[in-house]
Specification:
6-stranded mixed β-sheet, alpha/beta, 5-stranded parallel β-sheet, 16 helices, single chain, globular, 458 residues
């Protein structure tokens, strides 16, 4: 099990969360070479702290420089893994709003509730915060191709940022169970989109084995640079709150990169005197895809048992989350909790968020669903109605429109699977720049053939 962590190191590098071994900052690795566990990116402590550092962040908001206006690179003293600012990629990303939600607060039984809506990013989800850092590292390493396994949002973000950086984006998605709204993004941004006849966890395992052989850089959340970008969500949130931390931060849990990065950010802010108190991190999973929640409820958070994921909230349909140790570390450090909610609770909470004029993808609504149950029942973790609470919305409402329409037509089912059919009408248009997905069996050889064919054609 990962141990409580120190935020800084005497030099830059990749530090194992378990054995503490330090690896080179430019090593193309995702796990510790000594024990095989996950890695943190570490740096020397910034020279400025407290109010001086906060003032530096704030003044950049009125700058005309792209990296100053980025919601990630505006906080670059906190992620100085680059050597020169010319190496930095930006879209721009971040600067997402903090929204009051009075109807949702009433629904949950709270005095006040605010949503930090990460769906206002360029590709419509929180993934842009992390992807801009991961693609920047790929550029520093001189990579030609980057890849991810995805349930939708990661693939859209990787495709956009890699294309803008001049790299080949490669995305692996399950053949079924992925929102066509998300799939359309990776196709439109020019990614080699491979639909694997298997689930997300199988696709990720295949990619992990194949990437070293083909010289591909993996940008799933096992990549610690992805989490470096995502941690700036907390810097941005605390700045929006005047550096007064809330009592609780509630976040959806899929592959658990967000909660892991949030914990790292809060630990760093505390050390620099920019955290007034430790917010309690509450991670919420869908009940059919809740391995971390089940571990906590069983009293054995040091062990995770993979589950066969099943949920309509496709963004968190993950049965073997790679970042679970880092997430558990963050929960334990913040005296937080992990819970799960049903499909019905998610669907109703999503509709209620819409009633506040906000909207989100289904996975985001797990946060409100959990708050409602925990405030009214307190069955596993009591939420006081007077707590100051910020819930994280991870994706835009248009990420999964089929779900929304079916709910409001009373045609949403727990085992629902949508198929897209084309009805011919009139003369067809020529698809001069068509980029159709490639469907492959869940084998290394099939995947390698598809990737090598595209790489050699560039």
């Amino acid at each position: 099990m990962a141990q409580p962590w120190e935020p800084w190191h005497v030099s830059r590098g990749l530090r194992c969360i378990s054995c503490g071994a330090l690896h080179g900052l430019r090593d193309v690795i995702y796990r510790c070479g000594a024990c095989g566990d996950l890695l943190d990116v570490v740096y020397r402590r910034p020279g400025e702290t407290g109010a001086a550092l906060a003032a530096r962040f704030r003044v950049r908001q009125v700058s005309d420089l792209a990296i100053d206006r980025s919601g990630v690179w505006r906080f670059r003293e906190m992620l100085p893994f680059y050597d020169d600012e010319s190496q930095i990629i930006t879209y721009p990303e971040g600067n997402t709003p903090l929204l009051d939600a009075p109807r949702c607060a009433q629904y949950a039984g709270l005095r006040r509730l605010r949503f930090k809506h990460l769906g206002f990013n360029p590709t419509g989800s929180f993934k842009d915060y992390g992807m801009v850092a991961g693609v920047t590292q790929a550029r520093i390493l001189g990579m030609r191709a980057v890849a991810c396994a995805s349930t939708g949002n990661t693939s859209a973000s990787l495709a956009a940022y890699a294309t803008r950086a001049g790299m080949l984006p490669i995305v692996l998605v399950p053949e079924t169970g992925v929102s066509f709204a998300k799939l359309s993004q990776s196709l439109d941004y020019g990614a080699l989109t491979i639909m694997v006849r298997g689930d997300f966890d199988q696709a990720q395992a295949l990619l992990r084995r194949l990437a070293p052989r083909l010289g591909i850089y993996i940008l799933n959340s096992v990549n610690p640079f992805r989490l470096e970008g995502q941690k700036t969500v907390m810097f941005e949130l605390m700045e929006q709150l005047g550096w007064r931390a809330p009592d609780r931060i509630v976040v959806p849990g899929g592959n658990l990169g967000n909660s892991s990065s949030f914990g790292k950010a809060l630990r760093e802010l505390e050390d620099l005197g920019l955290l007034s108190k430790r917010p309690r991190l509450t991670i919420v999973q869908a009940r059919g895809a809740a391995p971390l929640s089940e571990a906590y409820e069983s009293g054995h958070s040091e062990r995770l048992v993979r589950v066969h994921a099943s949920t309509l909230a496709t963004a968190i349909k993950i049965g073997a989350p790679v970042s679970w140790k880092k997430a558990a570390r963050a929960v334990d450090w913040s005296d937080g909790w992990v819970t799960s909610v049903s499909e019905q609770e998610i669907a109703d909470a999503k509709a209620m968020i819409g009633r506040d004029g906000i909207g989100c993808e289904p996975a985001s609504a797990t946060t409100l669903a959990a708050l409602r149950r925990l405030a009214s029942e307190g069955t596993d973790e009591r939420v006081d109605p007077d707590e100051t609470v910020v819930a994280i919305l991870t994706g835009n409402v248009l990420k999964d429109p089929d779900y929304t329409v079916r709910y409001h037509q009373s045609a949403l089912f727990e085992e629902h699977r949508s198929e897209t059919k084309i009805i011919e009408s009139g003369s067809p248009l020529a698809s001069a720049f068509a980029n159709p997905p490639v469907i492959v069996d869940a084998t290394e050889s099939a995947l390698a053939d598809a990737i090598e064919a595209r790489m050699h054609s560039r």
